[in-house]
Amino acid sequence: MKAVITNIILWLSPLTLQAQDTTLFEKRVFVNNKGDSMQYRILFPEAYNDRERYPIVLFMHGAGERGHDNEKQLTHGGALFLKPENRKEYPAIVVFPQCPAEKYWVNINIRRKLFAGEDLDFEEVRSTPTKEMRLVMQLFDRIVREESVDHDRLYLMGLSMGGFATFEILTRWPGKFTAAVAICGGGNPNLAQRYSPFVSLWITHGSLDDVVPVKYSRRVYLALQSYGADVRYTEFPDANHNAWDPTFEMPELLPWLFSKSK
What we know:
The protein has helices at residues 2-12, 78-82, 84-89, 110-115, 131-146, 161-172, 215-226, 244-249, 253-259, and strands at 26-31, 37-43, 54-60, 93-97, 149-159, 179-183, 200-206, 231-236. By secondary structure, it is α/β, with parallel strands linked by helices.
């Protein structure tokens, strides 16, 4: 039991920041017409030209990267898009919003249920998204509207809490995104049919995950398969909850993602 508690605390607390130069991600704050705000970081392609059109990636971080510093959300994933070879090969607009420390992207009480060993049934997902989820999508829509975005190449990625958010976003806005990558998260398999015809999806998870059990990814994958979706599934036999590490190391990940177009 002590080990379970330790793992959950690690999942929910800030993880060690990887050495990376994040200054190329501009610090910004989004404010909607009601005065609600959300901090975010945005990376533009090198030699950004508003006469061209670029794909856009929305990245949903995990619970350990929540906060008010507008920095921690880049801990996992930021370095992937900062690699010089990736910036050259895949020029894109990349957006990392930050969820406040005391909030969650989704309404599911993941921490309480997983701590108690309960099965996530997704009954706590309400009819309306969280305030944080609404702000993310308002932010995303504004960037798509105001910047030089290729509307046929809207991409979504998320890990852990952000992996759950990835599936919920696809469920709530099924025709919006072209492709998505969901890492060590989970979703409601009974709702997978809503987005199965519209999005290409790559799901990854660690077989040894004792924070978010791998069954939550397997269930969605099997459901999407049954609906004939364009879906891939990769399970890392030696990975625990840090499935993002081997996911980001897959050489085919970004070529797959950026090849997708509506």
